[in-house]
Amino acid sequence: MRAQIEQWWEQRIDREDGAKSYHIAYEHSELVSTNVVLSIAAIEGVEPTGLPPLGAAVDPDALDDLIGEGEMCGSISFRYAGYEVTIHSDGRLEVVSVRDLPSRGCGS
After folding, report:
1. pTM for the complete prediction?
2. Measured CA distances, 93 to 15, 34, 75 (Å)
3. 54 with 60: CB under 8 angstroms?
4. What's the rounded Cα separation, in Å, for the pair 76 and 50?
5. What is the Cα–Cα distance from 78 to 83, expressed in whole angstroms?
6. Which of 85, 87, 106, 104 is nearest to 95 (CA)?
7. How many C-beta atoms surround the C-beta of residue 105 within 10 A?
8. Pairwise CA distance, residues 96 & 83, whole Å
9. Cα gap 53→7, rounded to integer Å
10. Whether 37 contacts 8, CB under 8 Å
11. What are the tens digits of pLDDT across the range 63-82?
12. pLDDT for the residue 3
């Protein structure tokens, strides 16, 4: 599994030097829920099973249905495993550590 995660990192994840966010390409034919988990596992350097269940943050089936139909315009964001994940309709995931997000006040 470690080799699969390393391969995922090399093929999919882009991070410019000094940038606070990761950009991951995904195909609309793939389950976006799987992409989210594999991407964060690769960023963290852990097995996907070492992460909390995605279902604790968002309904994976609903997410796959929403994104998989290819009819979404814009983006959707949620927090998972210490990251803010934004899924863009153009086939990009953006992942930012919550530590790197600006404070929003009101108990953000």
Report:
1. 0.80
2. 12, 12, 9
3. yes
4. 24
5. 8
6. 85
7. 6
8. 5
9. 22
10. no
11. 988 887 666 788 999 999 99
12. 61
Residue pair 89/74 in contact (Cβ under 8 Å)? The answer is yes
Supply the pLDDT for residue 52. Answer: 97
Average pLDDT value over all residues in the chain: 82
The angle subtended at Cα 80 by Cα 77 and Cα 83, nearest 5°, is 80
Please give the radius of gyration of the chain, using alpha carbons only, rounded to the nearest integer: 14
How far is Cα 90 from Cα 57, in angstroms, rounded to an integer?
22
Question: Which residue bears the tokens 């070492």?
Answer: 50
- State the Cα–Cα distance between residues 92 and 86, nearest whole angstrom: 8
pLDDT value for 75: 92
User: pLDDT class for 101, splitting at 50, 70, 90?
Assistant: confident
Using the predicted structure, report yes or no on whether residue 2 has a pLDDT greater than 80: no
